[in-house]
Specification:
2 strands, two-stranded antiparallel ribbon, alpha+beta, 2 helices, single chain, elongated
């Protein structure tokens, strides 16, 4: 596949799937737009768990700006 492979379903550019050491096998691609149920998208390195979000939210005085998409009940329960 070319370096600029395109998704056959949505037409967006495909991303290379790298292993845990950061190497690419030169064959595996993933579409980040239309493959939400794909196993490679289960965890985003930049995502926050509800527990991390609750700590940040609490340390900032329970400010709505630091809720990161969680509800107040979810954050309270995680504390």
């Amino acid at each position: 596949m070319s370096r600029f492979a395109m998704c056959p379903d949505c037409g967006h550019r495909l991303s290379r799937v790298k292993d845990s050491f950061g190497y690419w096998d030169e064959e595996t691609y993933i579409c980040n737009y239309c493959s939400d149920e794909n196993e490679y998208n289960e965890y985003d390195e930049e995502s926050l768990s509800v527990f991390e979000a609750a700590d940040i939210w609490f340390s900032n005085g329970k400010d709505e700006e630091f809720m990161f998409g969680f509800t107040e009940d979810e954050l309270e329960e995680a504390l």
